[in-house]
Structures are given as structure tokens and as C-alpha cells.
Write a structure and sequence with these properties.
236 residues; 2 domains; 63% helix
């Protein structure tokens, strides 16, 4: 057993969790590293990825273990033993290793947990959403999350709701600090092209009697909401 796998194993010792969760956690431990699939994960941990990626994998493992412990009653034991889940599992771990941005890291975490608890998302849709997380930038995901879940987003970012005033050009630089407004408009247009929002970037120059957060109401499409929900760890 490699030192990295020993460390992961020790971190998960002592957790009183149900068998479905143990099934997933055991995959993360060195005990299953002899299988081809888990051997690939072990290789990622020990041979190929730099220390920064290794730390992300370890953090991802700890967060996933914590999520599954909290949601253990919802975990679908039959589902997590399928090839479909194994595919999602590997892709999410690779995604977490390769992407340092919090938005992408959290999205892979959400996809993995939602896949384990048995969401209503079809396998083809899961793969589509998974590929989108790889394709979209962190900025795309951040914009969509702000528009889909503004209250939660602002709370997580430590931004008071009263700071979101005026029109899109006024409050987007506050909600997403440090990004050029023209870049945000371009990303906004991309999300419209993907069908995630039903308003194009012209909204940034459109006059409206409404101001602030109320302007976000109804602008995220059903597809956009489904995507963000699937990329977000569910509540207990």
C-alpha cells in the first residue's frame, strides 16, 4: 500500500457509515487498488499527479466521504455498483484533480453525490452535464449559479444582498468581482446559446423599472436549473 493510500485509509477510519457508503469509500482506499479501475485512481494518487493535484484529490475524498455520511439513507446501493456510476465516479475524480477552480471542483462533487443518491437525471444527461462542466469555464458556472441561486450564492460569497442594486451592468461586477464587464457579457451570451438562460447579453444595456435581484427572476431556463441542481450537493 502506498503512503498516499495509507493516508486516505486512515482519514476514513472510524466513520460509522452504512454499507452503500462504505462501498464507495472502499474504492478510495488502497484495498481495492488491485482492480484495473481503482488501480488507475491509485496511479493518479501516487505516480502521475503533482502534489497540488494530490491535495485536491485528498480534499475531494474527504468532502465526498462527509457528504455520503450525511446522505447515507439516500444512497442507492444498487446504483453505485453499476458501470454507469463507475464511469461518473472516475470522471469526477479526474475532473477534481485537473481543475483547481472552486466552481468546477464543487460541480464534480455535486455530480458524484447526486449520482450516488439516485437523482431523476438519465445516464445520457449525466454524461452531457459532466462534459459541460469540463467545457464551460469557471466564470460560466459562477454566472449561472448566481442567477439560479442568488441568495445562496451571495451568502457563500459573503456579499450583502443590499449591495445588489441597479441594473445588470451595475450589480454583476459586484456579484462577480474582478472580471471585466465585457468578458462577463461574452460569457453571458455563451450561456444563452447553450439554452441555460433565456436572456441574451443585450440585457446589460436594457433599461428597466425593476432593479437589483428582482431582475434575475425567471431568467434561468429549466435546462439551466437542472444543470445547476445536478452540480450542487443536495441537502440532507
Amino acid at each position: 500500500m502506498s503512503d498516499e493510500n495509507k493516508e486516505l485509509s486512515l482519514k476514513n477510519e472510524g466513520k460509522n457509515i452504512s454499507s452503500p457508503v462504505e462501498h464507495i469509500l472502499n474504492i478510495l482506499k488502497a484495498g481495492l487498488s488491485t482492480t484495473p479501475f481503482c488501480g488507475g485512481i491509485a496511479s493518479l494518487l501516487s505516480d502521475y499527479i503533482p502534489s497540488t493535484k494530490q491535495k485536491r484529490i485528498e480534499t475531494f475524498t474527504e468532502l465526498v466521504a462527509s457528504d455520503l455520511e450525511k446522505l447515507q439513507k439516500k444512497v442507492d446501493e444498487k446504483l453505485i455498483q453499476t458501470d454507469d456510476f463507475a464511469f461518473i465516479f472516475e470522471k469526477c475524480f479526474r475532473g477534481a484533480a485537473e481543475n483547481y477552480q472552486k466552481e468546477k471542483f464543487d460541480s464534480f462533487r455535486g455530480i458524484l453525490i447526486n449520482s450516488a443518491v439516485g437523482s431523476n437525471v438519465k445516464e445520457e444527461e449525466k454524461e452531457y452535464y459532466l462534459n459541460l462542466v469540463n467545457t464551460l469555464s469557471a466564470l460560466h458556472i459562477k454566472i449561472l449559479k448566481f442567477m439560479a441561486m442568488p441568495t445562496e450564492y451571495l451568502e457563500n460569497e459573503g456579499i450583502p444582498q443590499e449591495n445588489i442594486r441597479g441594473g445588470f451592468s451595475d450589480f454583476f461586477p459586484i456579484a462577480i468581482h474582478g472580471v471585466n464587464i465585457e468578458v462577463m457579457k461574452s460569457a453571458f451570451g455563451d450561456l444563452h446559446q447553450y439554452g441555460f438562460i433565456n436572456t441574451d447579453k443585450s440585457i446589460f444595456t436594457t433599461m428597466s423599472s425593476d432593479k437589483g435581484l428582482v431582475l434575475l427572476g425567471g431568467r434561468v431556463s429549466v435546462l439551466g436549473m437542472q444543470f445547476i441542481k445536478f452540480c450542487t450537493v443536495p441537502n440532507e
